[in-house]
Amino acid sequence: MTQVLSQDQFQEQIVSQYTDVIGEKLGGQILSYSDQWFADAENLIKPKAPIRDATRFTYAGAWYDGWETRRHNEAEADWVIIKLGVSSAKLIAAEVDTAFFNGNHAPFISVEAIQKLDNDDLLSVKESDWETVISKVECGPLQRHFFSRGSLTSKNYTHARLRMYPDGGIARFRLYGEVIPVVEESSGEATDFASVKNGGVAIKFSDQHFGTADNLLLPGRGHDMSDGWETKRSREPGHTDWVIIRLGAPAKLQKIIVDTAHFRGNFPQKVNVKGIKVDEESKIDPTSGDWEVIVDDSKTSADKEHEFEVKDTSKVYSHIKLTIIPDGGVKRIRAFGVRG
C-alpha cells in the first residue's frame, strides 16, 4: 500500500538511503510519452528546482517548467516512459512535484516499472507487463508529494512509467531505489565502488549549501560548479566539512581519486579519506575513533584530479568518509578496488 510521507520523513528514510535512479544528471532518459502539448516531458527529470515566468507564453500557451498535456484526455491517463540512468534498480519511493501547476495539475498519479535488460525497444511490451510500484494516489496543486511503498521491490527494473489521471501538469518526478548493476564485475578488476552506477550512496554530510553531496558519485567530470559538492565558507578555526559514502559493496580499496574540476577559487586546501567496516549503518558516527585513515591530509589544487594510492590494500571497508579542510568544493570522488 502506498504511504504518504512528510518531507522530513522522506529525507531521512528515502533520500539519505537510496538513489534517484531516473535523474537526468545520472543519465535517465525520456523514451516516449502520450502527449506533451504545453510543456515537455524531459523537464520532469531535470536536476534543478522548477521555476515560473508568468509573463512567458509560447505557441502552445503559457510556459511551464514541467510536463503538461492537453485538456480533455479521452484515455484513462497520460503517461511518460523513462529509462533508468543505471543498469537496473529495485524501487521504493517517488517524489511528484506539482510546483506552479494550480488548476492544471495532475489530480492523481501512479508509477509502474518493467524489467527489459536487452534493449529499449518497448514495442513488444504488453500492458500487462507493467508492474505497479506506487499505486494510484491523489495529488494536489503547488506542492511536493512524497510517496513510499514501504519496502524495496523484489525485482530490479530498467524502465519506469509515470501515469497521471486523466491529464494535467507535473513539474518534477524523482524515483528512488537501490542500484543493482546488471553485469557483475570480475573479482580481479578494479571497480569504482563509490560510483552511483555501482551502488554508492552519500548517506551523511556536514553541509551541502551550494551543491549536493550525491553529485560526488556521478559519472564524468561534470560541466560547471553546479554539479559538484560545495559547502559554505567557514569562519571558525579548525573547521572541516565531510561526507560519508556507503560503497556499492564491501571492498578492498586500492586507489582514491578526488577531483576538483571547475572549482578554481574555492577548492579545499586539503583533503583526507578514512574508511570503516560496519554491519549496522545506523550506528555510524562521523566523530568515532574507529575510522581508519586511507589517505592522509593532502594538499589539493584547482580544477584537477588528485590520485592517491591506498597503502594497505588488504583491509575491507563498507563506507568511506571524505573530509575537506576547511571547506570548499569537490566535483567527484572515486574509490577503486575489488570486492572484499
TrEMBL record:
Molecular function via GO: allantoicase activity
Pathway the protein contributes to: Nitrogen metabolism; (S)-allantoin degradation; (S)-ureidoglycolate from allantoate (aminidohydrolase route): step 1/1
Catalytic activity line of the entry: allantoate + H2O = (S)-ureidoglycolate + urea
One Pfam family from the record: Allantoicase
Keyword Repeat recorded: no
EC number(s) given by UniProt: 3.5.3.4
The Allantoicase domain, residue ranges: 27-179, 199-338
InterPro entries, sorted: Allantoicase (IPR005164), Allantoicase_dom (IPR015908), Galactose-bd-like_sf (IPR008979)
Gene3D superfamilies: Galactose-binding domain-like (2.60.120.260)
Keywords, comma-separated and alphabetical: Hydrolase, Purine metabolism
A GO biological-process term: allantoin catabolic process
Sequence similarity: Belongs to the allantoicase family.
Function: Utilization of purines as secondary nitrogen sources, when primary sources are limiting.
PANTHER family listed in its UniProt record: ALLANTOICASE, INACTIVE ALLANTOICASE-RELATED
Protein name: allantoicase
